[in-house]
C-alpha cells in the first residue's frame, strides 16, 4: 500500500514536467535549447499583473501547458496564449533562440497591453521583449536578440 501511494505521488509530481522534442533529428547529440512558458502563481496573478504565458505549439507541434520544449537554437514559430484575470491574447509568434540555453517566456499585463519577455535563464539575461494588445489576434511578430 505504501509503495503504491509513493508511486502515485511521483507520477502526479512528474506529470506537469513533460519535455517534448521539436525538430531534433533521431540520433542528434549536439547542443539544444529548452523553452518553457510561465504559469503565474495565485499571488502574481491576482495581486500583481503577472499573466499565464502558455506555449500552445512550436513549429506546428502541439502539447499541453506546462510542457518544456527541447529544440535546436534558431528561428521558431509559436502559438501563444496569454491570460490575466479577464484579459487574454492568443496569437502567433516568431522568435529566435540565439544559443543552446534554457529560455522562459513570461508576460505581464498593464491596462490593455501584454508585455512579453524572453529570458535566457542560464545567464539571467533578457533576450528580447514585445508588447501586444489584449483580446486581439495579431499577425506574427518577431523577437530579435538584443
Describe this structure as you would to a colleague.
Strands 1, 2, 3, 4, 5, 6, 7, 8, 9, 10 and 11 form an eleven-stranded mixed β-sheet that branches. Mean pLDDT is 79; it is low at 1-16. The protein has one domain. It is mainly beta and 146 residues long. The protein has helices spanning 2-15, 42-47; strands at 19-22, 33-36, 50-58, 61-62, 68-71, 74-84, 87-97, 102-110, 113-120, 125-133, 142-143.
Q: Which key phrases capture this entry?
A:
146 residues, eleven-stranded mixed β-sheet, 11 strands, 50% strand, elongated
Structure summary:
The protein is mainly β.
* Major sheet size, sense and barrel closure: 11 strands, mixed
| Rg calc | 16 Å
Number of DSSP strand runs: 11
Uncertain parts? 1-16
Number of domains: 1
Mean pLDDT: 79
- The helix count comes to 2
Which structural class best describes the helix and strand composition? mainly beta
Order of helices and strands: HEEHEEEEEEEEE
Distance between the termini: 55 Å
Coarse morphology: elongated
Q: Give the percentage of residues in beta strands.
A: over 45%
What is the percent of helical residues? Answer: 10-25%
Question: What's the helix and strand layout?
Answer:
Elements: H1 2-15, E1 19-22, E2 33-36, H2 42-47, E3 50-58, E4 61-62, E5 68-71, E6 74-84, E7 87-97, E8 102-110, E9 113-120, E10 125-133, E11 142-143
Parallel strand pairs: 1-5, 2-8, 7-11
Antiparallel strand pairs: 2-5, 3-4, 3-6, 3-8, 6-7, 8-9, 9-10
